[in-house]
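Input record, target 12 of the design panel.
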């Protein structure tokens, strides 16, 4: 655990230094463009954030990924304090978690079953630089995940399947321009992190530390690549991974995305997600102010990323597989 905390602090410190340097590197170039007239053309400097930043709410859904479930639910963004160039906010979600599809485990061996309700909340602070060419933010919060379990997808016969409860604390740093975006995050399990799922497998949560770098191909079409390191008490999923993402803003407030990840524990995992938010930046309104639709301004009310409690499993120590002659399934003795 101490090693995980040291790694978390190290990554957070590195990310903070990287983000802090942006205004003097990339940010300065953007500032020069703004002086040339870009900011004036967009009308960004004339926007009142108290008008632009409004509560928004809606729904989100995602297919299972590397340690994450099939899910769908509701969520919302609530500005608590809005300043001339900043916002202090609450971002909260509640999701129904569904069974894994096609007997294909999202946590490596044991399939997730039944329906449970997970929650996620973030308190955060976001602010714009002097010419409003970059948005910077910091956030922290708490996530919970009850998880019902079923059969194994390995051919092993399991008994005494249980429903378990996991939780984590999380923190993130972010920086967004009209072209680039950076997101550093840490997901740190707390409480009981390792539970017996059934007669054969144990399930444990994963500490996850990552950094995503994104690029806006067009204002509505974005791509990102990321690196993450995961570490668990069961010691079978520890290691590095990569994550790629493409997202497209179908209409104002409706966004679809696809994700592709790879690490040695989960191997290649594909997932997709859909999110709709209305009530902010003119979402759902008949008339919209174009100046509010720049990525920098929209980022002030964007949903915080990376908030699922990630779980993996492994065989219980001392388990010996024996094949049953009648069922032709394996069991643990």
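The sequence produced for target 12 reads:
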């Amino acid at each position: 655990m101490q090693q995980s905390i040291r790694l978390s602090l190290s990554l957070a410190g590195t990310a903070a230094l990287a983000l802090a340097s942006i205004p003097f590197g990339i940010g300065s170039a953007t500032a020069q463009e703004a002086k040339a007239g870009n900011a004036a053309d967009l009308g960004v400097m004339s926007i009142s954030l108290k008008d632009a930043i409004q509560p928004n709410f809606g729904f989100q859904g995602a297919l299972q990924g590397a340690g994450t479930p099939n899910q769908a639910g509701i969520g919302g963004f609530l500005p608590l304090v809005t300043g001339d160039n900043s916002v202090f906010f609450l971002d909260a979600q509640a999701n129904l978690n569904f069974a894994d599809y096609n007997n294909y485990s999202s946590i490596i061996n044991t399939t997730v079953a039944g329906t449970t309700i997970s929650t996620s909340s973030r308190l955060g602070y976001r602010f714009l630089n002097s010419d409003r060419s970059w948005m910077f933010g910091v956030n922290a919060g708490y996530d919970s995940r009850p998880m019902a379990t079923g059969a194994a997808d390995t051919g092993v016969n399991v008994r005494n399947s249980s429903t378990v409860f996991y939780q984590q604390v999380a923190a993130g740093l972010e920086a967004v321009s009209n072209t680039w975006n950076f997101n550093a995050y840490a997901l740190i399990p707390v409480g009981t992190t390792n539970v017996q799922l059934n007669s054969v497998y144990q399930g444990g949560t994963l500490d996850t530390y990552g950094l995503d770098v994104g690029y806006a191909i067009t204002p509505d079409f974005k791509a990102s690549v990321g690196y993450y390191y995961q570490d668990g008490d069961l010691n079978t999923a520890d290691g590095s991974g990569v994550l790629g993402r493409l997202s497209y803003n179908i209409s104002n407030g409706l966004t679809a995305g696809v994700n592709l990840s790879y690490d040695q524990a989960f191997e290649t995992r594909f997932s997709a997600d859909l999110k709709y938010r209305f009530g902010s930046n003119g979402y759902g309104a008949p008339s919209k102010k174009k100046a509010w639709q720049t990525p920098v301004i929209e980022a002030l009310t964007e949903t915080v990323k990376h908030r699922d409690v990630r779980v993996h499993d492994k065989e219980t120590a001392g388990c010996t597989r024996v094949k049953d002659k009648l069922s032709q399934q394996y069991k643990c003795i």
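The helical segments are 2-21, 26-35, 38-42, 49-52, 295-299.
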